[in-house]
Structures are given as structure tokens and as C-alpha cells.
Specification:
- This protein is α+β, with helices and mostly antiparallel strands and about 500 residues long.
- Helix content is about 30%, strand content about 30%.
- The chain is built from 15 helices and 27 strands.
- The strands form 8 sheets. Strands 3-13-14-20-17-16-15 form a 7-stranded mixed beta sheet, with helices on both faces. Strands 24-23-25-26-27 form a 5-stranded mixed beta sheet, with helices on both faces.
- A hairpin with a 2-residue loop joins strand 6 and strand 7.
- Helix 2 packs across helix 11.
- The protein is globular.
- The relative contact order is 0.11.
- Bound molecules: glycyl-adenosine-5'-phosphate (GAP).
- The site of glycyl-adenosine-5'-phosphate has 19 residues, from strand 14, strand 17, strand 20 and helix 11.
């Protein structure tokens, strides 16, 4: 993760928000390359799920909506996380991401250590030794296996266990409070009144904007069951512990689809179909299939309205974590809005000649999390020969050409030869009309290749003396294999079209 964060800052992908004021926890800014990568991910998603499908329509709803929407959806009363405070360090933890394990010395249990999800075993053992040192039992044997095997979520800790627990950032035991519910929605006030009637919320998901507009889209008469509504947009959550770079932030973007189906449809089969479609899409933007797994939520942990939820997990640098949630939400949301708004959410199904409130399958994906997955999959350090044939280390981002921020770099072999520069500039201008390409004339050609490798530009195009003196062909270099071949301009354009837009 450190390498990825370092590269993102150095090359202008991602910066901490408000960095000149020391940063602002949970918020990030996307620099010139980051915004390109981000836009390319969103465009690929929109193209594949909206433009290239006949059964899905697009939507862009407002971020701040009528507060009754959040009452109906259950967010006002229920959208919270269990929070634990440390009275000593003043740090806050999500209780469902905090674990505790027994400290056993010479076979006797003497207390507990708490640690956040993803903490490595060596750090947990170090904390347990701190408990041992406090007890003045430096010579006692610590049961290290129990620390690894016997861990429990802090939501389940009893008052007695809490009193004996050393918190992750505390120097003594009994500093962690009992978990309490912490509301995740950001509040704001709309209009000149300062009383409670002005309270509104920044949306914590884009989904409710879809449910709130479902009737409008049905009434335009273009859709018939089954059909989907897709939306890309910002969402805001006052996360207790934003962390792991852009993985969990307080302002992020979602790409969500609500896919409406008949109540009697085979939702299990459709759920499976959606899971496969989503996996295929992740692979199409360059994530390795072997790094994607499925986490089926156990029935007893499902929300009361959910029939099934499976998360697509990705192997992030900080472990295997949720990337894409694919939930079967029954008719819960539409029925809630029907009750609260008094407007019918029924649809007339021509095929079955019946009226009903449809059920829904919801594939919900974070843009920022996808971007982190893409960065993780692309980051690579390898060795390649330099201009002199010596093997050199390089950092290379192996982005798929479909989403790479810069698609190709155009280089005149020498910058002081106007005849090379002229041809290179003309080609650059031509390609620039279709794609985000880069022109670089300065420095040794090997160094120019390395600079592009580090930002993941898939193709290098060099204009040399053969171009101007012989057949007009250019050298096309592949970022990953470093192989070079000569192509005509027509072949080059056909190749780029296939690789980038195909
Ligand atoms: N409408 C359903 C919904 O919002 P979710 O599991 O809370 O479900 C869906 O969020 C997706 O949004 C997640 O799988 C993740 O990709 C992304 N996401 C959620 N919270 C996030 C956060 N704090 N920071 C970045 N991405 C987040």
C-alpha cells in the first residue's frame, strides 16, 4: 500500500484533501492522472451497463433529497455503526472491525488485547507482551497460538471482558467503552430556517435516488420488466474509521444499478447471473480473476428485507475486502416509498397482464474502491534492459489500455531534428483528437519510456529516421513486454482502436 500511495502522490494520481492544511481525514483529491483513470472506469461501466444493454436506463438524481426519503428507506433510524471510544487515547473504533483475544500466561488467562481488523500477528503478540510486562510477569510464557486462534468481535465483549482489555492505542487496560450506535449520515440545513424542519442529509448511497425516480422512469413508458436503472454519483458517510487510503473514505462515489424483476421471477438464478456479469466486468478492466472471490452473507446476518447478499471480494494490499455488493432487496424499498409517499409503485406487466410492485437486485460498486483495486492489480516492479542492454529495475503500472489514463506517448527520437519533431507533432495532434495521448521530446528515449511505464501508458510510439527517410512507419513499443515493431500509421490507428475502444 505504501508503494501505491507514494506513486499516486509522486505522479499526480491522488492527493490527500486539503493537504496544505495538513490533510482532512477521509477525503481525497484526484490529480491529473487520477481524474483520467477515474473517468475511464466510470465511462467503461456506463458503456457496458447502460449503452451496451437494452434493458438498463441511466439517471442522475440530486445529492440532497427530501428528508422523508431517508425516513422511508430506514436510514434516519437505522444507518449507523457500532462505535467504541478509547477514554485514554481518544481514538474511536468500529466495534465490528475491532477484535479481542485472550492473553494467556503460563496457561492462565490474565486479560485481553484488542486490535483492529487486519493487524498482523507480530503486532498483536507485541501488545500482549505489554500486558505481560504490566503484570510484572516478564518471565512467563505467552500462549501466542491463542492470540491467533481465539479472536472475537468486540461487539460481543462482556463488561467483565472489556474491563480486562488493553485497547489498540492504550497503555493500560479498561479504557474501551461499550459499543454504542453512531449515525453515519452527514446532516446539513436547507433554506433560511435554522430549526429542525430544515434538517436534510447528504445521500449515503445513490440507490434511493433511483427508487425515488422509479415511477418517473416507468411513466416515460420505455421500460418493461425486467429492467434496470443505473446511476453514478457521490455518496457521503461519516465513517468512524476512514482508512486504507481511498478504500473507506467519507466522500466517495458509487456506481449502482437497481434491476427490477417480477415477484415470482427466479431471483436466485438472476442473482447468480448478475454475480457472473459483475465478475466478467471486473476482469474486463484488468483485475485478475484469481484475486476476486465471493463472500455469501449468512442468512442470520442478512438485513430483514434482504433475501440474499453476496459481496465480490478483492485481494487489496490490506487483505481480502468487499469491492462490489450484489444484494436481492425484495420489494422492500419500493413498498416503503409507496407507504411513505402515498404514491403507487406498481407496474403493469404486459407479459403476465398483472400489476405488482417489482422486486429488485442491486449491484452496488464504489468507484474509488474499484480504482484502488485497479491500482493494486496494475502495480508491478520488474527488470528490463535499458538502451545499453543492461538490466534495469522499473516500476510499471500495467493498466488495461481501456482504462489507462494516458493511452499512448509519442516521441520524436531526437528533439533537435525538426524533421522528426514535425512528423511526431502531427501524429500527436491527430491522435489527440480521439484519445488522451502524451507528447514527450526531452531526455534519452529509455528514460522517456520509463516515465510512461510508471504511469501505465500502454503504448510508446517513436518517430525515427526510418519514418522520415524510408517507409513512414513508426516504432510501436508495448509497455509490458517492451517489444517493439514497426507499423504504418493506418495499422497503428487500427491497433489502438482495437486495444482502447474494443
Ligand atoms: N446501496 C447499497 C449500498 O450502498 P454498501 O455495501 O453500503 O451498499 C456499496 O456500499 C459499495 O460502495 C461498496 O461495496 C463499496 O464499493 C462502496 N463503498 C461503501 N462505503 C464506502 C466508503 N466509505 N468508501 C469508499 N467506498 C465505499
Amino acid at each position: 500500500m505504501e508503494d501505491i500511495v507514494g506513486l499516486c502522490k509522486r505522479r499526480g494520481f491522488i492527493f490527500a484533501s486539503s493537504e496544505i492544511y495538513g490533510g482532512y481525514n477521509g477525503f481525497y483529491d484526484y490529480g491529473p492522472l487520477g481524474v483520467e483513470l477515474r473517468n475511464n472506469i466510470k465511462q467503461a461501466w456506463w458503456r457496458d451497463f447502460v449503452h451496451r444493454r437494452d434493458d438498463i436506463e441511466g439517471l442522475d438524481s440530486s445529492i440532497i433529497m427530501h428528508p422523508k426519503i431517508w425516513k422511508a428507506s430506514g436510514h434516519v433510524d437505522g444507518f449507523s455503526d457500532p462505535l467504541v471510544d478509547c477514554k485514554e487515547s481518544k481514538k474511536r473504533y468500529r466495534a465490528d472491525q475491532l477484535f479481542f483475544a485472550p492473553v494467556i500466561l503460563d496457561g492462565e488467562q490474565v486479560g485481553y488485547v484488542a486490535f483492529v481488523e487486519g493487524t498482523d500477528s507480530a503486532s498483536i503478540i507485541k501488545r500482549a507482551k505489554k500486558v505481560r510486562d504490566h503484570l510484572d510477569k516478564k518471565q512467563a510464557t505467552l500462549d501466542e497460538a491463542a492470540l491467533g486462534n481465539d479472536r472475537t468481535e468486540f461487539t460481543e465483549a462482556t463488561a467483565e471482558q472489556r474491563a480486562q482489555t488493553l485497547g489498540p492505542d492504550a497503555s493500560k487496560v479498561d479504557t474501551l467503552t461499550a459499543p454504542r450506535e453512531f449515525k453515519l449520515m452527514f446532516e446539513t440545513k436547507v433554506g433560511p430556517l435554522a430549526d429542525d424542519s430544515a434538517v436534510a442529509y447528504l445521500r449515503p448511497e445513490t440507490a434511493q435516488g433511483i427508487f425515488a425516480n422509479y415511477k418517473n422512469i416507468v411513466d416515460t413508458g420505455r421500460v418493461k420488466i425486467p429492467f434496470g436503472i443505473a446511476q453514478i454519483g457521490k455518496a457521503f458517510r461519516n465513517e468512524i474509521t476512514p482508512r486504507n487510503f481511498i478504500f473507506r473514505s467519507r466522500e466517495f462515489e458509487q456506481m449502482e444499478i437497481e434491476y427490477f424483476i417480477a415477484p415470482e421471477a427466479d431471483w436466485q438464478a438472476l442473482h447468480r447471473e448478475w454475480l457472473d456479469t459483475c465478475i466478467d466486468w471486473l476482469v474486463s478492466i484488468g483485475l485478475p480473476r484469481e484475486d476476486i472471490t465471493e463472500d455469501v452473507h449468512p442468512t442470520e446476518k442478512l438485513a430483514f428485507y434482504s433475501q440474499a447478499t453476496t459481496d465480490l471480494m478483492f485481494h487489496f494490499p490490506h487483505g481480502e475486502q468487499e469491492l462490489w455488493g450484489i444484494a436481492c432487496r425484495s420489494d422492500y424499498d419500493l413498498k416503503q416509498h409507496q407507504t411513505h409517499s402515498g404514491k403507487s409503485m406498481e407496474i403493469f406487466d404486459e407479459a403476465s397482464k398483472s400489476k405488482y410492485v417489482p422486486h429488485v437486485i442491486e449491484p452496488s460498486l464504489g468507484v474509488d474502491r474499484t480504482l484502488l483495486a485497479v491500482l493494486t492489480a496494475a502495480y508491478c516492479e520488474d527488470e528490463v534492459p535499458n538502451d545499453k542492454g543492461q538490466v534495469e529495475k522499473r516500476t510499471v503500472m500495467k493498466f488495461s489500455p481501456k482504462i489507462a489514463p494516458v493511452k499512448a506517448a509519442i516521441f520524436p527520437l531526437l528533439k533537435n531534428k525538426p524533421e522528426l519533431v514535425d512528423v511526431a507533432e502531427k501524429l500527436y495532434k491527430k491522435l489527440q483528437r480521439r484519445w488522451n495521448v502524451f507528447y514527450d521530446a526531452s531526455g534519452a528515449i529509455g528514460r522517456r519510456y520509463r516515465r510512461q511505464d510508471e504511469i501505465g501508458t500502454p503504448f510508446g510510439i517513436t518517430i525515427d529516421f526510418d519514418t522520415i527517410e524510408k517507409d513512414g512507419t513508426v516504432t510501436l513499443r508495448d509497455r509490458d513486454t517492451c517489444e517493439q515493431r514497426r507499423v504504418t500509421e493506418a495499422e497503428l490507428i487500427e491497433f489502438l482502436e482495437e486495444q482502447i475502444d474494443g
